[in-house]
Design goal:
Elements: H1 4-11, E1 19-26, E2 32-35, E3 41-42, H2 48-61, E4 69-71, E5 91-93, H3 94-104, H4 107-117, H5 119-128, E6 135-136, E7 153-155, H6 157-168, H7 175-186, E8 216-224, E9 227-235, E10 239-247, H8 254-275
């Protein structure tokens, strides 16, 4: 089935008061499709794949060790998603923090990793792999004051999808770094956007062959006021890398938020069909 179906589904949201940017890559066949895929938008925590990619690169090069201890500083601790700010322990390893960032989008773990590798290193990696519009601008903050960047991160659906397409091919720095990144993403617990309406097994070995009729998904989501984003990999009879980013004016209220979520899930159903899986 042609990936054009994904774009056709996304176009059905054109009447909605929001921007829906979509990119999909057939990793093996080479086909790439998109809608507003080069529009730079806030991407919230979906951008954490870039941080995780840099951490994985450093583990691969030996600049960091998986068991290297990282103390949680008072300035790292923020609310929102995650567990660390609510736990008593204050010393973790680099790999602990990566698992927490990938699995529950832990904001405190994210800040500790950002302090460890530096924002500038994520920018260098984005440039090195040709994703110049994907950028982390700041740490995660409870309150974003006038002196702070207005959003945590921006990017394009094209950048996010192609970062993960490279990882699936084993070309995100190295095969080892690529596999590690996808392994972390496989642990993500938020399947409420693209995977929500598709038959997928969250526990089957990855990236091994999926059970009959099911798909394998590794993804990372992002949620901020006026933003819902999901980027990941769907493995079926085809391997697809994707990104879907919705952005809207929060003054429009919760009905627009619900419309954005439904639109993203509809795109997920089309992605699943193109990957050769069943939909619910």
């Amino acid at each position: 089935m042609s990936l054009a179906r994904v774009v056709a589904t996304a176009r059905r949201s054109a009447a909605l008061p929001l921007v829906l940017a979509v990119a999909a890559v057939d990793v093996d066949g080479g086909q790439t499709v998109g809608l507003d895929e080069r529009v730079v938008l806030p991407v919230a925590s979906a951008s954490k794949v870039l941080l995780l990619a840099e951490v994985s690169r450093r583990l691969d090069s030996g600049e960091l060790r998986p068991d290297e201890p990282v103390a949680i500083h008072e300035a790292d601790a923020v609310g929102g998603t995650g567990l660390l700010a609510r736990l008593s322990r204050r010393d973790w390893t680099v790999e602990d923090l990566a698992w927490l960032t990938a699995s529950v989008s832990d904001n405190t773990a994210t800040n500790a990793l950002l302090r460890t590798v530096g924002l500038e290193s994520t920018a260098r990696l984005a440039d090195a792999v040709g994703l110049g519009d994907l950028a982390l601008h700041d740490v995660v903050r409870d309150v974003r004051g006038p002196d702070a960047p207005p959003v945590f991160a921006t990017g394009t659906a094209w950048d996010l999808a192609h970062l993960l397409a490279g990882a699936v091919r084993g070309e995100m720095v190295s095969p080892q770094a690529s596999a590690r990144l996808l392994g972390w993403m496989r642990a993500n617990t938020d399947h409420g956007l693209v995977p929500a309406l598709i038959a997928h097994d969250p526990y089957a070995p990855f990236p091994g062959p999926p059970p009959a009729g099911d798909l394998l998904v590794a993804n990372k989501t992002g949620t901020d006021p006026g933003v819902r984003a999901d980027t990941g990999v769907i493995v079926g009879t085809r391997r697809l890398a994707y990104a879907v980013v919705a952005h809207w004016d929060t003054a429009l209220g919760s009905s627009t938020e619900r419309a954005a979520v439904h639109a993203i899930r509809d795109v997920g159903r089309s992605l699943a069909a193109c990957a050769g899986g069943d939909v619910r």
